[in-house]
Amino acid sequence: MMIGVPKETKIREYRVGMTPAGVNLLVEDGHAVLIQKGAGEASGISDLDYLQAGAAIIDTAAPLYAGSDLIVKVKEPLPEEFSLYRDGQLLFTYLHLAPNPDLTRFLLERRIAGLGYETVQMEDGSLPLLFPMSLIAGRMAVQIGAHFLEKENGGKGLLLSGAPGVPPARMVVLGGGAVGENAARLAIGANADVTLIDINPRKLAMLDERYQGRLRTLYSTPYAIRDAVVGADLVIGAVLVPGGRAPHLVTRAMVAAMAPGSVIVDVAIDQGGCVETIRPTTHEQPVYEVDGVLHYGVTNIPGAVCRTSTFALTNATLPYVRLLAAHGLEAVFRDRALLSGVNTQGGLVRHPAVAAALDLPYEPLTH
Ligand SMILES: NC(=O)c1ccc[n+]([C@@H]2O[C@H](COP(=O)([O-])OP(=O)(O)OC[C@H]3O[C@@H](n4cnc5c(N)ncnc54)[C@H](O)[C@@H]3O)[C@@H](O)[C@H]2O)c1
User: Fold this and answer.
1) pLDDT score for 332
2) How far is it, in rounded angstroms, from Cα 16 to Cα 258?
3) What is the fold, at CATH topology level, of the domain defined by 131-304?
4) What is the secondary structure of 39-87 as a DSSP string?
5) Which of 232, 227, 211 is nearest to 145 (CA)?
6) Which terminus of the chain has fewer CB atoms gathered within 10 Å of its CB, N or C?
7) DSSP-derived secondary structure letter, 290
8) Where does the chain hold its CATH 3.40.50.720 domain(s)?
9) Distance in angstroms (rounded) separating the CA atoms of residues 77 and 335
10) Measuring CA to CA, how many Å separate 211 from each of 88, 162, 178?
11) DSSP SS3 for 255
12) What's the CA gap between 354 and 104, in Å, rounded?
């Protein structure tokens, strides 16, 4: 199979969909890998590294897309890239379709088999291709929040840890999965005052046990959320309903009741965000204010630590890329997790949560 890895074009997206180790394995499996010139540069991977691993370097995007059966990348196709795709092409990347009807329409019209990393789901409910980036985004959310709490950057002028005789900053995390737990872990390490809210009692019990009194856990109800959020210095949004739109847990009224200079980092923005007043932002212009509260809604947070992220992501995606390269779309019938990754195929929506979020008919993919 011909596998194409384009250079990412999203603003300040520096990750790349494959490392030389991945190229090497795929070439040994008998496939050809096309890498767009400079695709790995920002992650510290040179064209020569890819060449030595057995890839062919292609100067521009158009011939790479035209010559590939399978496109492996990091972020969703952008409107300016739509014309590059071939009808019926196999695409493996983050898609996040629930809040993106235009992209969904494009994938359906062009009958693209769109497999979204974020919905590849194991039988125990875990999300192996979201997990590595969620872990990184969760850890970064604390760094980001700490940065914007500084007066210079628009915040209240608070240090997360406080100081002897001065209380620490109060951080509230909504959702205790990969993002939420990693945010909590880092903030606990920084001696912040951390409250985590989740709707899954088993998760709360596990976190309570794991952090031994250093983390306050709350069961998710609108009442508990309001109470915690209005007094928070830093709120981190980290809920997920796999494939679906994030529920708006923090309302406009709650934001209005927060003190000026407080910070919201809504990591769940890629699924629409869990704060009513959040909208997508970019690394170039990451924050805006509503009622004096700073809102951060960058949809590709891990892109900022691209070298760490590229390797963490591709370690997780490579086994699935090999399966797709070996069997084409048939691979999804050999691996149930990969089957749940299929969002669109043959002009139909193939994931129930995506269909529900966009009010489109759902047709399961069958053998
Ligand atoms: N912005 C970015 O760059 C970036 C990077 C990585 C991940 N993400 C996003 O972050 C979000 C979280 O991802 P994750 O991997 O941690 O998901 P996860 O499935 O591991 O965790 C989500 C948690 O939310 C909880 N939850 C669901 N509904 C809830 C509710 N009503 N109240 C409280 N908790 C609730 C679940 O019980 C679960 O523990 C996703 O939208 C993901 O796509 C964004």
Assistant:
1) 98
2) 38
3) Rossmann fold (3.40.50)
4) TTGGGT--HHHHHHHTPEEESSHHHHHHT-SEEE-SSPPPGGGGGGSPT
5) 232
6) C
7) E
8) 2-126+306-358, 131-304
9) 25
10) 48, 20, 15
11) helix
12) 9
pLDDT, one tens digit per residue, over 230-282 is 999 999 999 998 878 999 999 999 999 999 999 999 999 999 999 999 999 99
For tokens 């309903």, name the residue: 241
Nearest Cα residue to atom 6 of ligand 1: 134
Tokens of 219: 């069961």
**DSSP, res 4:** E
CB–CB of 156/168 below 8 Å? no
Which class for 356: exposed (0-12), middle (13-18), buried (19 or more C-beta within 10 A)? middle
How many CA atoms within 13 Å lie on the side-chain side of 152? 3
Residue-by-residue DSSP string for 334-355: T-HHHHHHEEEETTEE--HHHH
- Residue 14 φ/ψ, nearest 5 degrees: -110, 0
d(CA 250, ligand 1 centre) in Å:
14
Which of 240, 283, 299 gets mutated to test ligand 1 (max ligand atoms within 8 A of its CB)? Answer: 240
Mutational test site, ligand 1, from 76, 97, 239, 281, max ligand atoms within 8 Å of CB: 239
Percentage of the chain lying above the pLDDT 70 cut: 100
